[in-house]
Design goal:
Length: 308
């Protein structure tokens, strides 16, 4: 193939795509399942679904010939229902155009798949969370604004009638969007008092001249656990006044005990010393009187002998 023929080939492919792209736009968050609707003609016989890439090649996604079978690169990623062929766990390589060939007849419409990553929002438990969704609303006729989670309605705004419809389990006390959304293009969803059950991927769909779809994955942080060993039973910890009274009472009791012990020790010491002092002088005095009496008798005898 010459160098000049390559651009011509790509131009022809792009013109072919542009001429046939008149089907719906499918927007999916990465990891979501994508449904391709089956017409009556594509529910029986020989049917194929191809993924057409921008380099001109296409990949077989699945084929029906007595039963649906996945293509070589889509093992364990294809399922089906009565009215849809389901591509599981969409990733960024699934982005592009898809076309059915039903009973050897290729459909005129291509379905365009856009795969995007959901915006991540982490909200504290039992507090408010804002899930962002912004789209151009100026100069465009907005038909509806719809927030969904897990395929079920959360909130829907109908601008022509200015009516808001809430899904099961939701009301104005739980979810809301800004009242001036049309002036600011802010269609963000506010979830009040977020609970663990609110964790999910939420989709914002805006039906207008240019369709818009975005996704937000809400995570709710778990509440802090109680301290270890704490129970719901009332504790017996004394109040500050009780603690104060107990401390002063203990102080006085201990002080009295120390005073009594000191007095007893001092009294024992005093009585012991007093008894010792009383006994010692009496013993020494008795010995001196006997010696004086003995000396006196000796002197008398001697005096008598002198006169003899």
């Amino acid at each position: 193939m010459s160098a000049t023929s390559v651009p011509i080939t790509y131009t022809l492919l792009l013109l072919l795509f542009i001429g046939r792209v008149s089907g719906k736009l499918i927007q999916a968050a990465a990891g979501d399942d994508v449904r391709f609707s089956l017409t009556e003609e594509c529910k029986t016989g020989k049917v194929t679904l191809h993924h057409q890439l921008m380099d001109g090649t296409d990949q077989l996604v699945a084929s029906l010939d007595g039963g649906w079978k996945p293509g070589p690169g889509y093992i364990n990623r294809v399922a089906h229902s009565s009215d849809s062929l389901i591509l599981k766990r969409a990733d960024f390589n699934d982005h592009g155009y898809y076309a059915f060939t039903c009973n050897y007849k290729q459909t005129e419409e291509l379905e365009e798949l856009h795969v995007f990553l959901p915006y991540k929002v982490v909200a504290p438990w039992d507090e408010g969370a804002t899930l962002p969704c912004h789209s151009v609303t100026a100069g465009q006729a907005v038909k509806s604004v719809r927030w969904r989670r897990d395929g079920e309605l959360v909130l829907e705004l109908n601008p022509p009638s200015k009516q808001i419809t809430y899904g099961d389990g939701y009301d104005e006390s739980r979810v809301s969007i800004p009242s001036d959304w049309n002036q600011r293009g802010d269609l963000s969803l506010t979830v009040k008092r977020a609970q663990l059950r609110d964790e999910e991927v939420y989709y914002c769909d805006v039906e207008k001249t240019e369709k818009h779809r975005s996704a937000v994955h809400l995570y709710v942080s778990t509440p802090s656990p109680p301290p270890p060993g704490s129970t719901s039973q009332p504790t017996t910890t004394p109040t500050p006044s009780e603690c104060s009274d107990w401390s002063w009472r203990t102080f006085f009791i201990m002080a009295v005990i120390f005073v009594i012990v000191d007095l007893l020790v001092w009294l024992g010491w005093f009585l012991r010393n007093r008894k010792f002092k009383v006994c010692t002088p009496g013993f020494s005095g008795g010995s001196s009187e006997q010696e004086e009496e003995k000396n006196l008798k000796s002197v008398t005898i001697n005096n008598g002998d002198g006169h003899l």
